[in-house]
Specification:
Length: about 200
């Protein structure tokens, strides 16, 4: 199982006000707030920690199907581009990549390299971008698979016989998807490559 989350930094810069009163206290633990204050770039650290929490939440809800909002409960430990997130007895490992344009985090139960495929959208509008992301995912796995959701709204791929864990994320001009295994379809490898 896998969870991922992407933050378009330009979108975050123009649509969020993370410095407003009480925002940090509602989302981040005291340790995380210290990461933000001590870091070279507080803006980037806020969104890195946010993407780590979101990726971990997506993984958690695949294992324990339920919906809730408790960002303070997901506590991040961040080092370089790796880290971990804990929530009660749950712990997962995080790999993060940062570019000038986005931050992407991926959560797994064991340490693995990033596997998300990142796309820059050609379309505008949230619904069109969501559809573009799904179409790109399905074009990589072939016609035998369909994208579906379970009762909790968690996405998965199925061919009628197998269920594959998948995570999708999009924000602003970027999207990403990851399948929880190394999948090969002809000459197309789903892994650390940009499409």
């Amino acid at each position: 199982m896998v969870g991922n989350d992407l933050v378009d930094l330009n979108e975050a810069l123009h649509t969020s006000n993370w410095q407003r009163d009480r925002f940090l206290n509602k989302i981040f633990t005291l340790t995380e707030q210290q990461y933000i204050k001590d870091g070279n770039d507080s803006f980037r650290m806020v969104w890195r920690l946010w993407s780590m929490k979101e990726a971990a939440y997506k993984l958690y809800t695949q294992i324990y199907p339920c919906r809730f909002y408790h960002p303070l409960g997901f506590e991040c430990e961040a080092t370089n581009h790796s880290g971990a997130v804990k929530f009660k007895d749950f712990q997962c490992y995080i790999e993060t990549t940062e570019t000038p344009n986005y931050i992407l985090s991926e959560a797994r139960l064991n340490r693995q390299n990033l596997g998300s495929t990142i796309i820059k959208f050609g379309s505008t509008g949230q619904k069109q971008r969501s559809n573009e992301l799904k179409e790109r995912l399905l074009s990589c796995v072939g016609d035998s698979y369909q994208l579906t959701k379970n009762k909790m709204g968690v996405p998965m791929l199925t061919n009628g016989e197998k269920l594959l864990s998948v995570s999708l994320t999009h924000h602003g001009s970027y999207g990403a998807f990851v399948i929880d295994h190394w999948f090969r379809n002809g000459n197309v490898s789903i892994g650390n490559e940009a499409v």
